[in-house]
Amino acid sequence: MIQGRHEPGVQEERRRKLRSLLGDLPPFRGTPRSSLRGARDGGGYLLEHLVLDLNGLEPVPAYFARPREISGRIPCVLYHHAHGGDYARGKRELIEGSPLLQPEPYARALTALGFGVLCIDQWLFGERGGRSESSLFKEMLWNGRVLWGMMIHDAVRSLDYLCSRPEVDTARIGVMGLSMGSTLSWWLAALDTRIAACADICCLTDYRSLIDAGHLDGHGLYYYVPSLLKHFTAGQINALMAPRPHLSLVGNHDPLTPPEGVDHIDREVREAYASAGAPGAWDLRRYDTGHGETAEMRETVLEFLSSVLTKKKTT
User: Are 118 and 75 in contact (CB under 8 A)?
Assistant: First the structure.
């Protein structure tokens, strides 16, 4: 490890390099415009159906869930849905769940803790569907864009929108997701210091180990960034979140997270957090399971988010 890599100036230089690999991105201009399609009782929480202008290219449907009764500014979670080849589900994962998750949808679980939650339809999913992943990937590549970069861009702009809401405590925003949502979460947390805490489930993948395991096709085309491995390991990306709290949950039998790769990431990230003076803020937990959330994982995620996002309150 390079001495001083955990220092803010060095970290920001590394973030700039990581951003530079994400292709030609739309401009970041002010607070994203939004419109409210409607609101309804979600069964214990209020659910807003929104349309956001995040990229200037296509409208982005989203859900925002919050407790029905709130007092002052509340902590919030930016929730990223999974891939799983289920292009129709998208943001509905937040309110309906999915076969990879525990039965109670996260909208209900998180609002019961007093949190607000935002989830968008990512490119190709939900109301943004209608094109194949390979077709969009190729079109973007021809135009100097990278699909993963555009997903990250929309995630950053979603955070911009979340920070603009009057009920949101901007010092207490976490990010979470499973599978594709997991990877989006740790990338966003690495790139944007407004994220106070990250909980990722079942996708802490070391890239070289995935190659060695012959499982590159386990991810869709969306996942692949040109020249990434010339400059970063997955561990080095995750290390950019130090010293902020980071919980990562992996299955020992998950083909997307080869154990030796998880070991490699753990070593790099533990070193970064120790150097940043926060060794306890990195928490990697392994379970005797595959690619999916167990009941124990769910309990751990909720305890983590409740602990780290209720500590600091902006007055």
Answer: no
Looking at 243-294, list the stretches that DSSP marks H as alpha helix, in order from N- to C-terminal side. Answer: 259-275
Q: Tell me, letter by letter, the H, E, C secondary structure of 40-93.
A: EECCCEEEEEEEECCCCCCCEEEEEEEECCCCCCEEEEEEECCCCCCCCCCCHH
Q: Residues in the chain, how many?
A: 315
Structure-token pair, residue 312:
């600091």
Rounded to 5 degrees, φ, ψ at 221 are -60, -25
Round the CA-based radius of gyration of the chain to a whole number and report it: 18
DSSP-derived 3-state class of residue 227? coil
Query: Is residue 114 a contact partner of residue 306, using CB atoms and an 8 Å limit?
Result: no
At 46 the pLDDT is: 97
Cα 165 from chain centre: 19
Contacts of 17 (CB under 8 A, 6+ apart): 231, 232
Low-confidence ranges of the chain (pLDDT < 50): 1-4, 314-315
Confidence at residue 5, expressed as pLDDT on a 0 to 100 scale: 58
